[in-house]
């Protein structure tokens, strides 16, 4: 078919993959953190309080007190390359691009902060991607994480005249590929320790207990991940939930409370965060730094933090296999 001379240029059709993680401020300073928290904590799925009640609290108290404290925490884990979460996610995207080669165009975005989801979709479309797989990097489904990604994607699609065909990577909390990757990573981490921990503790991000009562599957999926991993490892895996915020009752047991109890009991511990696809503030500062401080302050002696899957070999192979499965019929 001959293309008319005045036809606008159109890129050849391609397949796109967009990896999406939670987000990060642009820099470890109060101004950047305030901007990031304002976006994050204004999401109606993240804080399920009527906005007419919540926004005065957010703008009047939280955004005037929390950014400085959070900026100090970010500064402790910030690298020369920037935010750990952003740089690791970028490396994961590069690893996926290497895995798929010319068969797919791989990009990454953050739900909050930069690079944002909308411009990332636009860039894939400009590259000719008419079919895009959206891959939220959350093994366990939660409305406050997974659903917010699809919300943002849908909101951006509403602004497009020419929309791509979409697929979404489902949660993979009990997928054998994920469990096998966790097993390999945990065993490698344990092999590198100078002690054999009495307790292997899986710390998942906490959620208000109300989310469980409303039907969110997150708590059950976290428990199932831990149970399957325990069976694969052939040893107990204890579960705790971190990052409590506000006055509402959250999922229990709380990670900080468990660490203090283990410290007082004289137990050695190796802690890891299987719900996080990449190390970030909540793992590197809250667990590896503050968690250790809480543990030792309670009398504990031997503590280790085991890294997330990140862009290591087990996690990379798992993610490539999951994506390839979801792209069946497109590639």
How does this structure look, described?
This protein has helices at 30-40, 51-77, 84-100, 117-126, 146-157, 176-191, 209-213, 218-233, 255-265, 281-284, 286-297, 313-326; strands at 14-24, 105-113, 129-136, 165-168, 199-205, 238-242, 269-272, 303-305. The longest helix is centred in the N-terminal third of the chain and has 27 residues, at 51-77. It has a domain at 176-305: 3-Layer(aba) Sandwich (Rossmann fold). Helices cover 47% and strands 15% of the residues. The two termini are 25 Å apart. The strands form two sheets. The protein has a four-stranded parallel beta sheet with strand order 2-1-3-4, sandwiched between helices. A four-stranded parallel beta sheet has the order 6-5-7-8, with helices on both faces. The protein has 331 residues and is α/β, with parallel strands linked by helices.
Summarize the structure.
Helices cover 47% and strands 15% of the residues. The chain has 331 residues and is α/β, with parallel strands linked by helices. The chain has a four-stranded parallel β-sheet with strand order 2-1-3-4, with helices on both faces. A four-stranded parallel β-sheet has the order 6-5-7-8, sandwiched between helices.
**CATH architecture verdict of one domain:** 3-Layer(aba) Sandwich
Give the helix/strand class.
alpha/beta
CATH class of one domain: Alpha Beta
Sheet of most strands:
4 strands, parallel
- The number of E-state strands comes to 8
Q: Percent range for helical residues?
A: 40-55%
Name the poorly predicted regions: none
Please render the helix and strand layout as text.
Blueprint: E1 14-24, H1 30-40, H2 51-77, H3 84-100, E2 105-113, H4 117-126, E3 129-136, H5 146-157, E4 165-168, H6 176-191, E5 199-205, H7 209-213, H8 218-233, E6 238-242, H9 255-265, E7 269-272, H10 281-284, H11 286-297, E8 303-305, H12 313-326
Parallel strand pairs: 1-2, 1-3, 3-4, 5-6, 5-7, 7-8
Helix pairs in contact: 1-2, 6-8, 6-12, 9-11
